[in-house]
């Protein structure tokens, strides 16, 4: 039963990942998430249900559109696989159904932000605004509303200060994303997430400049680093804090 439940949760996560691909592609373009049905971005042919099975269809089609033969971006199966693993991780993390659903929602939202900001250099308000509200509602339901609102305001205010001091080096989307993460994570998890984000962002930025894929003048999106920081903090805040205090 445990194995069967694990498979079911993973498959459900990949289905959510398939929808997440629609969000990642359409949301930055201002397109409806519902209509029209999924279609090939190259030839515009609607994708049949048999060709839209998460991960499986990509493998059966050998990564190409059935109609025009254009290559399908690897992002699609990767997001589906990542979503399945993240939802499974949220379930294995344990807790009440509310806690599991909340963790899964946050993880999938961060996954969408990761790819949207990486591609378009924006963090959509359509994700952060509802996320802040939902995060505070969940915090209130769990009896930690004060913790959630202080974390949200504190993280948002800190990033706003960084944005002002850096004169545009930090975008408004990052400010709202930090506030959303604070509402969900609370203290001290949001601090851990921010430290991981700044560390990983700095390492990746230096690496890209060192290998000449970016120059010092090129903008490097910070949303992906924040997303990764939030994911890690959700699962590993306690051991990270213990390690830091004992170091």
Overview of the structural elements:
This protein has helices spanning 2-26, 56-60, 75-93, 97-120, 125-141, 145-165, 172-185, 189-210, 223-246. The chain has 247 residues and is an all-alpha fold. The protein is globular, with a radius of gyration of 19 Å. The chain has two domains: 1-93, no CATH class; 96-247. The protein is built from nine helices and no strands.
Structural class: mainly alpha
Rg value: 19 Å
Termini Cα gap: 42 Å
Low-confidence regions: none
Question: What composes the largest sheet?
Answer: none
H and E string: HHHHHHHHH
Name the overall outline: globular
Number of strands: 0
Overall tally of domains: 2
- What is the count of helical runs? 9
Please state roughly what percent of the residues sit in beta strands, choosing from under 5%, 5-15%, 15-25%, 25-35%, 35-45% or over 45%.
Answer: under 5%
Oligomer: single chain
Q: What would you say about this model in short?
A:
With about 250 residues, this protein is mainly α. The protein has 9 helices and no strands.
């Amino acid at each position: 039963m445990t194995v069967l439940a694990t498979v079911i949760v993973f498959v459900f996560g990949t289905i959510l990942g398939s929808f997440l691909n629609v969000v990642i592609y359409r949301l930055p373009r201002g397109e409806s998430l519902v209509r029209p049905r999924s279609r090939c971005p190259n030839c515009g042919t609607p994708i049949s249900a048999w060709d839209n099975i998460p991960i499986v269809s990509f493998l059966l089609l050998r990564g190409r559109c059935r109609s025009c033969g254009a290559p399908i971006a690897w992002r699609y199966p990767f997001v589906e696989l990542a979503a399945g693993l993240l939802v499974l991780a949220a379930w294995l993390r344990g807790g009440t159904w509310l806690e599991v659903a909340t963790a899964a929602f946050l993880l999938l939202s961060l996954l969408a932000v990761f790819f949207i900001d990486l591609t378009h250099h924006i963090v959509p308000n359509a994700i952060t605004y509802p996320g802040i509200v939902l995060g505070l509602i969940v915090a209130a339901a769990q009896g930690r509303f004060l913790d959630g609102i202080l974390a949200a305001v504190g993280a948002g205010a800190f990033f706003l200060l960084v944005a002002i001091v850096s004169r545009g080096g930090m975008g408004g989307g990052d400010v709202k994303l930090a506030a959303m993460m604070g509402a969900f994570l609370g203290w001290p998890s949001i601090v851990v997430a921010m430290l991981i984000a700044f560390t990983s962002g700095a390492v990746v930025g230096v690496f890209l400049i060192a290998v000449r894929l970016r120059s010092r003048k090129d903008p490097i999106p910070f949303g992906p680093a924040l997303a990764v920081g939030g994911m890690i903090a959700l699962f590993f805040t306690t051991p990270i804090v213990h390690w830091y205090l004992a170091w």
